[in-house]
Structure formats: C-alpha cells, structure tokens
Amino acid sequence: MEVLKVNNLKKYYGNNTNITKALNNISFTVSNNEFLAIMGASGSGKTTLLNTISTIDSVTSGNIIINRVDITNLKEEELSNFRKKNLGFVFQDFNLLDTLTIKENIALSLIINKEDKNKIDNLVLDISKKLGISDILNKYPYEVSGGQKQRCASARALINNPKLILADEPTGALDSRNARILLETFKEMNEELNATILMVTHDAFSASFANRILFIKDGKIFNEIIKGNKSRREFYDEIIDVLTLLGGDIN
Question: Residue 225 maps to which CATH number?
Fold first, then answer.
C-alpha cells in the first residue's frame, strides 16, 4: 500500500526572466512501513521537497497524495486538520518545552486538541513503554539524557499513529553517540512499531539506516538505491559511491 505518492512535482521560484527550478518534475512513492532517505547537496531541492510534503510550502504543479488524499487540493484549514491527523514530525533540535514534563511534551498535541484525559494517559503510557521511557515521564527535559530527549521527541511524533513521519536533518545538531541513538530509535520505530519514515539528510551514515535512498540533484532525482539484503556497512559503501558520482559535496 502506498502511503505517499509524489507525481510530476514542480516548484519554481522567481519570474519569467529569472526562474529557479527548485523541484523539476519529481515523481516517487513511499510504501507503508518503509524507511526512505532523501539525499542531496545544499541547494539540490531536498528541503523544498520535504516542505511541500509536510504542507509547509505549496507546489507550482503536480500532486502530493498522502493516505489517498491529494493535499495539493486542500485549503489552509483542511491542511491544518490533515497535518494533525496524518503527519508526525521529528525536528533537528527536538523542540521540547523545558516547562513541561516528558509526559506533557509527548501529549502536547492531544492536550491542545482537548482529547479525553484517560485516552491521553493510555496513549502516552503505551508509546513510552514501547520506546523505553516510561520511567521518566514525570521528569523535565533538562533532567534527562540526550538519548531520552530523542526518544521523547520520537514518542511525540508517534502519539497520533501518523501515516507518515517526516524528519529534516534530525542528526544535524547531535554528536556521533546521540546521532546513533536517534537513528537506532528510528530503525526501531520502523521495524517494531511499523512507522513509515521519510528522512532528509546530507549524511551517509544517517542514510545507511534507511531501506531505500533517493538522491536529488538540481531539483531532479539523480539516482535510487535499495538496501535489500546488504549489511549496513555494504549499504554505506554504496551510498558513498553514489555521492562520488554526485560530485562528492556531501558529508
């Protein structure tokens, strides 16, 4: 089953005398329970692509279909409601609020939507158990480790059982240890909790945790590789080979 279908997507900036083709006729699909990474150098269009899928930015033409809904045809209020019910987000700096407990951070979207308290408590307890943070729910972000903060952010992204989780350079502000913890959490979410993840990254190590990688160059899909039965080390080496063809301008 397709969770996401991107069809002939174009995003142009500027006017007739000076047009920048940020996305130039991109098409691909993401299946249920897939972990897809999008790679490309700065200016390649990967962040613009994520912004259009996440409903932050509009498209010039083409279609983005998530959970069988063409979001390019939705109005702003409809987009807001769709985003709440279907999309989960993991941010680079995690955006946890230090004035709220771990439990309250995880449940924030449910609290804002005035969900039933018992329902909230049950959902938070269930997802926190699955991610191994049920023992810190009453602590505040500044009282827990970096890895626990990452799992809190992941739990928040999963709390509504979204159809698609979007992550934009999620390891960009992390040291190597915490980056690995987050990526292993993503892998766990994908394999054990059946989360469908789309991650934008410039980092080959991060991308090697995915099942499939799309490489973007100058607003177009340049190449695609699939992990299959390869080890993560073998997949990493294959990623490096493609990056070399791209010009070696990605870490």
Answer: 3.40.50.300
In a domain, 133, yes or no: yes
87-90: strand order across its sheet: 87-90, 164-168, 197-201, 35-39, 212-217, 220-226
Angle between helices 102-112 and 117-130 (to 10 degrees): 130
| Alpha carbons within 13 A on the beta-carbon side of 191 | 9
170: buried, middle or exposed (CB in 10 Å: 19+, 13-18, 0-12)?
A: buried
**Backbone φ/ψ region at 61: left (φ over 0), alpha (ψ -120 to 50), beta:** beta
Is 251 part of any domain?
no
Is the residue at 178 inside a domain? yes
pLDDT, average across residues 84-112: 89
Residues 6+ apart with CB under 8 A from 12: 19, 20, 21, 22, 60
Residue numbers of the domain that contains 62:
2-246
226 located within any domain: yes
pLDDT tens digit sequence for 17-29: 788 899 999 999 9
The closest alpha carbon to 68, from 50, 89, 86, belongs to 86
Domains: count for the chain: 1
Report pLDDT digits (tens) over 103-156.
Answer: 999 999 888 888 899 999 999 999 999 888 999 999 999 999 888 888 898 899
Q: Is 108 left (phi over 0), alpha (psi -120 to 50) or beta?
A: alpha
